[in-house]
Amino acid sequence: MKHYLPFTALLYFGALTSTCVQADVLRIPLSQQGSASIKMPAHGDQQAQVVKQFGEPKVRHSSVGQPPISRWDYPGFSVYFEQNTVVNSVQTHQPNSSSAP
Question: Does 67 map to a domain?
Fold first, then answer.
Protein backbone atom coordinates (compact mmCIF):
# COMPACT_ATOMS: atom_id res chain seq x y z
CA MET A 1 0.00 0.00 0.00
CA LYS A 2 2.89 2.39 0.72
CA HIS A 3 4.15 2.17 -2.87
CA TYR A 4 0.81 3.28 -4.36
CA LEU A 5 0.37 6.40 -2.23
CA PRO A 6 2.87 8.66 -4.10
CA PHE A 7 1.57 7.45 -7.45
CA THR A 8 -2.06 8.10 -6.44
CA ALA A 9 -1.15 11.52 -5.08
CA LEU A 10 0.65 12.35 -8.33
CA LEU A 11 -2.39 11.32 -10.40
CA TYR A 12 -4.71 13.32 -8.18
CA PHE A 13 -2.46 16.41 -8.37
CA GLY A 14 -2.20 16.05 -12.15
CA ALA A 15 -5.98 15.86 -12.51
CA LEU A 16 -6.42 19.03 -10.44
CA THR A 17 -3.83 21.08 -12.29
CA SER A 18 -4.63 20.09 -15.85
CA THR A 19 -6.63 22.70 -17.72
CA CYS A 20 -7.93 23.14 -21.18
CA VAL A 21 -6.80 26.40 -22.74
CA GLN A 22 -8.66 27.90 -25.67
CA ALA A 23 -8.26 31.17 -27.51
CA ASP A 24 -10.06 32.85 -30.36
CA VAL A 25 -8.06 34.19 -33.27
CA LEU A 26 -9.19 37.50 -34.71
CA ARG A 27 -8.19 37.88 -38.34
CA ILE A 28 -8.65 41.24 -39.99
CA PRO A 29 -7.81 41.40 -43.70
CA LEU A 30 -5.11 43.92 -44.53
CA SER A 31 -7.56 45.88 -46.65
CA GLN A 32 -9.71 46.50 -43.55
CA GLN A 33 -6.97 47.40 -41.05
CA GLY A 34 -6.98 51.10 -41.75
CA SER A 35 -4.80 53.39 -43.72
CA ALA A 36 -1.15 53.74 -42.81
CA SER A 37 -1.15 57.10 -44.60
CA ILE A 38 -3.34 58.92 -42.05
CA LYS A 39 -1.30 61.52 -40.18
CA MET A 40 -1.71 61.46 -36.40
CA PRO A 41 0.05 63.15 -33.46
CA ALA A 42 3.30 61.51 -32.37
CA HIS A 43 4.22 60.18 -28.94
CA GLY A 44 5.61 63.05 -26.88
CA ASP A 45 3.77 65.87 -28.68
CA GLN A 46 2.16 68.48 -26.45
CA GLN A 47 -1.54 69.41 -26.51
CA ALA A 48 -0.75 72.86 -27.93
CA GLN A 49 1.17 71.24 -30.81
CA VAL A 50 -1.76 68.90 -31.51
CA VAL A 51 -4.26 71.78 -31.64
CA LYS A 52 -1.93 73.80 -33.87
CA GLN A 53 -1.41 70.92 -36.30
CA PHE A 54 -4.86 69.22 -36.27
CA GLY A 55 -7.21 71.90 -34.98
CA GLU A 56 -9.77 71.56 -32.21
CA PRO A 57 -10.94 68.01 -31.54
CA LYS A 58 -14.53 66.95 -32.13
CA VAL A 59 -14.76 65.75 -28.52
CA ARG A 60 -12.53 66.26 -25.46
CA HIS A 61 -13.01 63.53 -22.87
CA SER A 62 -12.22 64.38 -19.24
CA SER A 63 -9.15 62.96 -17.50
CA VAL A 64 -9.49 59.76 -15.51
CA GLY A 65 -7.18 57.83 -13.17
CA GLN A 66 -3.73 58.45 -11.81
CA PRO A 67 -1.80 59.59 -13.71
CA PRO A 68 -4.62 61.50 -15.40
CA ILE A 69 -5.27 60.15 -18.92
CA SER A 70 -7.54 62.07 -21.29
CA ARG A 71 -8.69 61.47 -24.85
CA TRP A 72 -9.40 63.77 -27.75
CA ASP A 73 -11.44 62.47 -30.67
CA TYR A 74 -10.77 63.65 -34.21
CA PRO A 75 -12.41 62.35 -37.40
CA GLY A 76 -10.58 59.08 -38.08
CA PHE A 77 -8.43 58.89 -34.95
CA SER A 78 -8.22 59.46 -31.19
CA VAL A 79 -5.33 60.90 -29.19
CA TYR A 80 -4.53 59.83 -25.62
CA PHE A 81 -2.73 62.23 -23.30
CA GLU A 82 -1.02 61.78 -19.97
CA GLN A 83 -1.56 65.24 -18.56
CA ASN A 84 -0.49 67.40 -21.56
CA THR A 85 1.69 64.88 -23.41
CA VAL A 86 0.61 62.47 -26.16
CA VAL A 87 1.10 58.86 -25.09
CA ASN A 88 -0.68 57.26 -28.06
CA SER A 89 -2.71 57.99 -31.18
CA VAL A 90 -4.99 55.35 -32.65
CA GLN A 91 -7.19 55.15 -35.71
CA THR A 92 -10.89 54.67 -35.05
CA HIS A 93 -12.63 51.73 -36.67
CA GLN A 94 -14.14 52.60 -40.02
CA PRO A 95 -16.64 49.93 -41.11
CA ASN A 96 -16.03 48.67 -44.61
CA SER A 97 -18.93 50.05 -46.68
CA SER A 98 -18.75 47.07 -49.08
CA SER A 99 -19.47 44.63 -46.22
CA ALA A 100 -22.73 46.33 -45.18
CA PRO A 101 -25.85 44.20 -45.80
Answer: yes
**pLDDT values of the chain reduced to their tens digit, one per residue, 101 residues:** 555 666 666 667 666 665 667 888 877 765 566 666 789 999 999 999 999 999 999 999 999 999 999 999 999 999 999 999 999 999 987 776 555 45
The tally of domains found in the chain comes to 1
CA distance 93 to 99: 14
Residue 48, in any domain of the structure: yes
Q: Does any domain span residue 46?
A: yes
- What is the rounded CA–CA span in Å between residue 69 and residue 67? 6
| Sheet with strand 59-64: strands edge to edge | 59-64, 69-74, 77-82, 85-91
Which structural domain, as residue segments, surrounds residue 60? 39-93
Cis omega (within 30 of 0) on the bond before 67?
yes
Asked, for residue 74, whether it belongs to a domain, the answer is yes
Rounded Cα distance between 72 and 70, Å, is: 7
